[in-house]
Write a structure and sequence with these properties.
Shape of chain B: globular
Protein name (chain B): Anti-sigma F factor antagonist
CATH class of chain A: Alpha Beta
InterPro entries (chain B): Anti-sigma_ant, Anti-sigma_F_ant, STAS_dom, STAS_dom_sf
Distance between the termini of chain B: 35 Å
Shape of chain A: globular
Radius of gyration of chain A: 16 Å
Largest interface: A-B, 25 and 21 residues
Oligomer: heterodimer
Distance between the termini of chain A: 10 Å
Order of helices and strands of chain A: HEHHEEHHEEH
Radius of gyration of chain B: 13 Å
CATH superfamily of chain A: Histidine kinase-like ATPase, C-terminal domain
Strand content of chain B: 25-35%
Order of helices and strands of chain B: EEHEHEHEH
Number of strands of chain A: 5
Strand order of the largest sheet of chain A: 1-2-3-5-4
Family (chain B): Belongs to the anti-sigma-factor antagonist family.
GO molecular function, one term (chain B): anti-sigma factor antagonist activity
CATH architecture of chain B: 2-Layer Sandwich
CATH superfamily of chain B: STAS domain
Helix content of chain B: 40-55%
Organism (chain B): Paenibacillus rhizosphaerae
CATH class of chain B: Alpha Beta
Number of helices of chain A: 6
Number of domains of chain A: 1
């Protein structure tokens, strides 16, 4: 396969209401888009899990479960690397360092495990959060799909 | 709903079999079903059987940890069994196996809990 082909770019954008029933829609849609890279089952399930974590955070924390909120996901493929962004225009995160602590949750009454960010950091190669209190949160994550890399070599 | 809860008592041990997808959307349903049965009083110990659980995220971890606290507060034990590799990684990462044992199947989980009870 040529170098040009290897760096080919593809992308998609998905927007939906901040409703919990859309969590499975979001992860299944992203997984379907990524499947063109021929990921392994593990890679696919990692990606589904991180989408689920980020979207759940937007719904519960960003929008306080207000279904009027809108969650936007973009997925971009460049070569064998997937970049996902999950964004909301919700309340934002006051203390990002605290929010990233494993087992920390701002909503213990909802029985949240506090593992969302830890899972995203572990399952992806790169993970970045930018948030502004009052205007929203954006999560950007990257992962290289190994099975495709094996094909190139 | 893309999640089914099946429950069965084996003496004072409640076996809960989850199939489908356990996420934020389905978590409340699972929590309610289990707590309803646990509160009814026949349950000392809990076995969570996850053979047919196709997907789980941190919302599922929250449900498991919440039930663990509930059972522990009543002086009982909890175990998980039949965990597929994907769910296993998530449970392992969360440190769950530091607080409860994992067994290959329901039979082993039941004998494991009966030994400690």
């Amino acid at each position: 396969m040529s170098k040009e082909k290897a760096m080919e770019r593809n992308f998609m954008t998905l927007q939906f209401a901040a409703k919990s029933e859309n969590e499975s829609f979001a992860r299944v849609t992203v997984a379907a888009f990524i499947s063109q890279l021929d990921p392994t089952m593990d890679e696919l399930s990692d990606l589904k899990t991180v989408v689920s974590e980020a979207v759940t955070n937007s719904i519960i924390h960003g929008y306080d479960s207000d279904p009027e909120g809108i969650v936007t996901i973009t997925a971009e493929i460049v070569g064998d690397t997937v970049t996902l962004t999950v964004e909301d225009r919700g309340r934002g995160i006051e203390d990002l360092e605290l929010a990233k602590q494993p087992l920390y949750t701002s909503k213990p009454e909802l029985e949240r495990s506090g593992m969302g960010f830890t899972i995203m950091e572990n399952f992806m190669d790169e993970f970045e959060v930018s948030s502004e209190p009052g205007s929203g949160t954006s999560i950007k994550m990257k992962k290289r799909i190994e099975s495709k890399k094996a094909l190139y070599n | 709903m893309n999640l089914q809860v099946e429950m069965e008592h084996h003496r004072n041990i409640l076996i809960v079999r989850l199939s489908g997808e356990l996420d934020h959307h389905t978590a409340d349903h699972v929590r309610m079903k289990m707590d309803e049965t646990i509160q009814r009083g026949l349950t000392d110990h809990l076995v969570l059987s996850l053979k047919n659980l196709q997907f789980m995220d941190s919302s599922g971890l929250g449900v498991i940890l919440g039930r663990y606290k509930l059972i522990k507060a009543k002086g009982g034990k909890m175990a998980v069994c039949d965990v597929n590799p994907t769910v296993y990684r998530l449970l392992d990462m969360s440190g769950l196996f530091k607080i409860m044992p994992i067994y290959d199947n329901e039979g082993h989980a039941l004998s494991g809990l009966e030994v400690v009870s």
